[in-house]
Design goal:
single chain; 740 residues; alpha+beta; N-terminal domain of mukB; 4 domains; six-stranded antiparallel beta sheet; four-stranded mixed beta sheet; elongated
């Protein structure tokens, strides 16, 4: 509890602007004995003391202020002078009664006034709110039409400062013209006091009717009989306590019932605890039983699968043996088929020498030569494919069959190696993409910082630039809080802690009241592509009195840049950076709000330490405008990314070389699959067939020559015999011999 009636905010220093409406000026015209001139009392929103001789008009001015704020039927005029209740009335003030005249004939007296029905009266008050630069005017205009009764009047309110002269003068003799002129000037006119009273309360911000009642009771008060009764009757709002008491009693009964229910539930839980534990043990046993049952059920399929794998292997071996036997049988069939012509030819030779066989050999020998050349070419290609597949050369049909099986095995392993190569390549590709993106981001941030841009980050800087371009504003008119705050060089060791505590506030855009509406409309109408927090900075703030602090605080190591936002930032730091700079965890535990150099932040019962980045990593700093350390850290990060990219490029070269080798192996295996039988590349067999045909032809040609020679010799012998016979038997036709 404070020992004074008013707080420090209610009694500010002279330099501090006052907020709230205070009476600034009172003006009267033709009011009481203030006649024919405008009388002005300037209070200048100060607490004033009105003094003067008896009858100088002090109560008259007080009654004018009272008339402006209270209805006439509730006002006790001239109460300040201690006069009788009926001594003065509203009519006496309007007509200007100043004495009484006595009628000698009747003995009655009547008041004498300074004015008649041809004049009018005006009372006016101006209230000012210096804290917000606002002024309002309330006034009443009176006109006494009849000789008896109360005067007619209308009520005026305006949201600006008015004066009797000239606002209520020089309008002629018709008050309707005055009404019209006031309305044209923006004033509101009411004909009844209740409407006028509601408007006055709204303009002055008087929410409670009790405040007007208190004013009515205290105006011109000289003494208070019982202070308790006065406060209870006039200063406190009437309230019916019975419902609240009933609600408290009902709430207490509900709390008792709830407490009993909680106790019952606790007792029930204690009884059920062994049952719950038994149920948990049963669930565990059931889970283990189900697992063992599943394992037992999987034994038969597992054994069947293993048997199937073994049989598949055995079948593969037997199929390979069958293939080898079929190949041998095909070779035997081919050799047998090749022997059939030889057998037939030998039969022909046995029947006679030569014949058409030489013609057949002239056709078969070139064909056999082409077959030998074709097999030799295919053999060279086959040997090259074997070398490409890194397989041993072949010499016979058994080697060919073995290489075919080895090629099939390599084909199966090739897919596995290609899959493994892809598993190596894909992570490298992802790493390279991420590193390139991070490297580009770091370089862009370095370029942006070297251009003198803000530490708050690229996205927020982009959003602010677009906002300033759209509203034709300079970036200094919409600063981020972090740009105006920095850690003092002498306390650089606490920068990490300051960054942890103030990061959210530092990334907030400061928007003055002048630009608040335009900024809010632009932000609402555009998709920002980033998270933006902005704070409205009011034009005027109630100055808070700083509280006494013990020990070094975070606010003590923060510099605030001078300018339009300096006072606002200082006030915000008083609540946001009121952390004790704790040298140890023990000191942290003793304080309500504290922070360590390592970045552990305590705010009463809440503790936080965000180690996703080091507290000493300049890349995440957002306070201040200097960026040399941040640029150096980003440059180091960029160089590290360059080294990682070079290493990944070298790994890519190795992977690409392995991929090229596997591609060559795949092409070689695909080419080997085109050779289905050993005979297609058996050059020895083709050469042997060609040699046999050539030998046969030579043999047949030699036999034909020998046969011709024998036949020629036989014919010569026959001719010689014939010639001898002719010589011995000349002229004998029976012994003629004709050599044919």
């Amino acid at each position: 509890m404070t020992s004074t009636l008013f707080s420090a905010l209610d009694a500010p220093a002279e330099s501090h602007q006052r907020t709230g409406y205070r009476l600034q000026t009172v003006e009267v015209f033709n009011w009481g004995t203030f006649d024919k001139h405008v009388w002005n009392l300037r209070l200048d929103s100060q607490t004033s003391l009105l003094t003067g001789d008896i009858g100088s008009g002090k109560s008259t001015l007080v009654d004018a202020v009272t008339t402006l704020l209270l209805p006439a039927h509730r006002i006790a005029y001239n109460k300040a002078a201690g006069a009788d209740v009926k001594e003065r009335t509203l009519r006496s003030y309007v007509e200007g009664h100043y004495k009484s005249e006595r009628n000698e004939a009747t003995g009655a007296s009547r008041p004498v006034g300074l004015r008649d029905h041809r004049s009018y009266s005006v009372i006016l008050g101006v209230f000012a709110n210096e804290g917000y630069g606002e002024q309002i005017t309330i006034a009443q205009v009176f006109h006494q039409k009849d000789r008896t009764g109360q005067p007619d009047r209308f009520f005026v309110t305006a949201s600006a400062a008015l004066s009797i002269d000239p606002d209520f003068t020089a309008f002629g003799s018709d008050l309707k013209a005055l009404r019209s002129r006031l309305r044209a000037g923006g004033a509101d006119i009411d004909n009844t006091f209740p409407d006028y009273h509601r408007r006055v309360r709204r303009l002055l911000g008087i929410r409670s009717e009790q405040a007007m009642e208190l004013f009515h009771q205290t105006v011109s008060m000289k003494s208070v009989g019982n202070l308790n009764d006065f406060v209870r009757d006039h200063m406190l709002e009437p309230v019916d306590a019975a419902p609240k008491v009933k609600a408290i009693v009902d709430h207490f009964e509900n709390l008792v019932k709830a407490h009993e229910a909680v106790r019952t539930a606790i007792d029930q839980l204690a009884v059920l605890a062994p049952l719950v534990a038994a149920g948990d043990r049963y669930d565990d046993a059931a889970a283990r039983h189900a697992g063992l049952t599943d394992q037992r059920s999987a034994v038969v399929p597992y054994l069947a699968e293993r048997v199937r794998e073994l049989l598949d292997g055995e079948i593969g071996v037997r199929e390979g043996e069958v293939t080898a036997l079929e190949s041998q049988r095909a070779d035997v069939d081919r050799r047998r088929a090749d022997l059939v012509p030889i057998r037939d030819r030998l039969k022909l030779e046995r029947a006679g020498v030569g014949g058409d066989r030489l013609k057949e050999l002239d056709v078969e020998i070139p064909r056999a030569g082409l077959e030998r050349d074709s097999r030799a070419d295919r053999r060279r290609k086959y040997d090259a494919l074997l070398q490409g597949a890194q397989l041993a050369p072949v010499e016979d049909a058994a080697d060919f069959l073995s290489r075919s099986e080895e090629a099939q095995l390599l084909r199966g392993r090739l897919d596995e190696r290609l899959g493994a190569l892809k598993d190596r390549r894909d992570p490298l590709f992802v790493q390279r993409t991420d590193l390139r993106r991070s490297r580009t981001a770091a370089q862009e941030e370095i370029d942006r910082l070297r251009d003198g841009r803000s530490n708050v980050g690229r996205d927020l800087d982009r959003v602010r630039a677009a906002l300033c371009d759209a509203l034709d504003l300079d970036t200094d008119e919409l600063p981020f809080a972090g740009e105006l705050l920095d850690v003092r060089e002498t306390h650089a060791q606490w920068r990490g802690a300051a960054e942890r505590v103030l990061r959210g506030f530092a990334l907030s855009l400061l928007v003055s009241q002048e630009h608040y509406a335009a900024v809010s409309e632009w932000v609402n109408d555009h998709r920002l592509g980033a998270r933006l927090v902005y704070l409205r900075v009011p034009e005027r703030r109630v100055r808070s009195i700083p509280t006494a602090r013990s020990g070094r605080r975070l606010i003590d190591v923060i510099d605030v840049e001078s300018g339009a936002f300096a006072d606002y930032l200082v006030a915000e730091l008083a609540s946001r950076a009121d952390h004790v700079l704790a040298e140890s965890v023990e000191e942290l535990r003793r304080e309500e709000r504290a922070v360590t150099r390592e970045g552990l932040v305590r705010d009463r019962d809440r503790h936080e330490k965000d180690d996703r980045r080091s507290a000493l990593d300049p890349r995440a700093w957002v306070l201040g405008r200097a960026s040399e350390q941040k640029i150096a850290a980003l440059t180091e990060e960029r160089d590290r990314h360059d080294d990682d990219l070079a290493r990944i490029d070298r790994e890519f070269e190795v992977v690409d070389a392995d991929a090229a080798a596997l591609a060559g192996l795949g092409r070689a295996l695909t080419g080997l699959e085109q050779y289905g039988a050993w005979r297609e590349i058996d050059t020895a067999e083709a050469s042997a067939q060609l040699t046999a045909l050539e030998t046969e032809r030579e043999r047949l040609v030699a036999g034909v020559i020998r046969a011709r020679r024998d036949r020629s010799s036989a014919r010569g012998d026959r001719r010689a015999g014939c010639r001898a016979a002719r010589r011995s038997r000349r002229g004998d036709p029976a012994t003629r011999c004709c050599a044919r």
